[in-house]
Amino acid sequence: MKLRIVALGQRMPAWTDAAVEDYLRRLPREFAIELVEIKPEPRNRGRSVAQMLAAEARRIAAATEGWRTVALDEHGEAWTTVRLATRLREWRDRTESVAFVIGSADGLAAAVKHNADVIVALSALTLAHGVARVLLAEQLYRAASMLGGHPYHRA
Fold it and tell me: Is the separation of the CB atoms in 144 and 27 below 8 Å?
């Protein structure tokens, strides 16, 4: 199964990169995963937020074309880790490729959310971009561990 994390933002703190790499490295081989970083639009060029999000949306669409898309948004569905594991199993069994999209400082354009297969909230809290990456990577690892019968997850 192919997984992709499409994340707006570059040059994360070293701790973020180290944590994400650690969790992604631990994933079983059946989950081939890649991190695709997309440069966010500059916030100082006199354009509206909507214009910047639209430009980012075009790059997100290119990075997710042909992939089942999960948009991460604080107003999305609240999934448990068990629900994530169930969905990963379903997607894996159907040999679907899945892209998880983390927006920029201003979130995601309405078009990205509209075109997503599902919108999921990592938390009702507002998370720093790097924390969202680490949380997603850890939850993917936890869900995959559950599917493999590994005792990492204790409910």
Answer: yes
Q: Write out pLDDT tens, residues 67-116.
A: 999 999 999 999 999 999 999 999 999 999 999 999 998 899 999 999 99
Beta bridge partners of 119: 71
pTM beyond 0.90, yes or no: yes
Q: How many CB atoms lie within 10 A of CB 83?
A: 13
What percent of the chain is helix, strand and coil (3-state, nearest 5)? 45, 25, 35
User: CA–CA separation, 81 vs 139, rounded Å?
Assistant: 7
* β-strand partners of 34: 4
Q: How far apart are CA 7 and CA 133, in angstroms?
A: 8
CB contact set of 2 (below 8 Å; sequence gap of 6+)? 32, 33, 67, 97, 98
H helix or E strand, kind and range, residue 57: helix 49-64
Q: How far is CA 35 from CA 3, 51, 84, 85, 136, in A?
A: 9, 25, 19, 20, 11
